[in-house]
Amino acid sequence: MSTRTLRGRFQWTVVVPILALVLLVATWSNHEHPVILSAIGAALVGAVLAAVHHAEVVAHKVGEPFGSLILAVAVTVIEVGLILMLMSSGGEAASTYARDTVFAAVMITFNGIVGLSLLVGASKHHLVSFNASGTGSALATVVALAGVTLVLPSFTTSAEGGAYTAFQLGFAAVASLLLYGAFVFTQTVRHRDFFLPVSSDKYGRMTGLLDEDGDSHADPPPAKEAWFSLGLLVVALVSVVFLAKMLSPTIEYGVKAAGLPYTVVGVVIALLVLAPESIAAVRNALRNRVQTSLNLAYGSAMASIGLTIPTIAVAMIWMDGPLTLGLEPTQMVLLAVSVVVAMLSITPGRAKTLQGVVHLVLLAAFLVVSVQP
To answer: Per the confidence metrics, is the pTM higher than 0.90?
Structure first.
């Protein structure tokens, strides 16, 4: 084996996910010691950074919008498993954990990932451009999903406390899968060109499409390398989520000791789980590929609802206790304002730093009312 091959096999992006998985297995049953918790935190950060690298390798091979779709779905599938584990552990907040985590993911993607992408992209390139038709259809799908699964339960009367009846929950699950499936078909088959990075003139007006790989001087990686990165991406994401699960008791203890609401735990976990997508979105924005950043943001919000709710609906057949999906009034206000701002940001098909600042202020408002309702 050549020196170059050996160096490639043992670079940090290969070693860190494997070490994180080994640490996960070795400390799963005993991880209360502060030194072990510190090691878990370091491994978590390393696994996040490695996941971003491997996601970008896979995205470069398959092209957009498949790359961002793969990362969004991979993170969300593992996030669903985390939600189910935390719900099954019981506790006073088990009935609202799915709602709080999904809503936190929506707010983080809607305002955090979008806001950071627009801010850093426009700061570097003055104006950033994207396809309003594709991004607008993604936003419409997310709004419909959130309305059916998170808003409507607060107003139905057949069940109490923001919950759905079994029939209503079944409908919400089927509707979520239908909406998500229809969007994926539109994004990857019917109107794929609406979700590709665009070129623009000095005024930010769209002039066409960029090269599909977004980098005319770099060829896509070989299939073998892409499959290798896909496997390491899965390993890294599994490590991120379950290491976060191992840190969650410490987070819960800190939240309780500080006198903060339990919903803060869901916010912190969502921030950790969405870190790979956030970093990938910002890096694409710096390369003037904001369309890819928006694909990641709205695709993650969509997958978070469209895959989580059907899975939770099926799991409720075996799980005891109520499932509260309906948002609180404050949460609904934040969602409504975020939707309006997103519509105004997307409609022109171009954005400046102001739009990024507006979205980030809304994220800050969400964090403030999560800490102090």
So the answer is: no
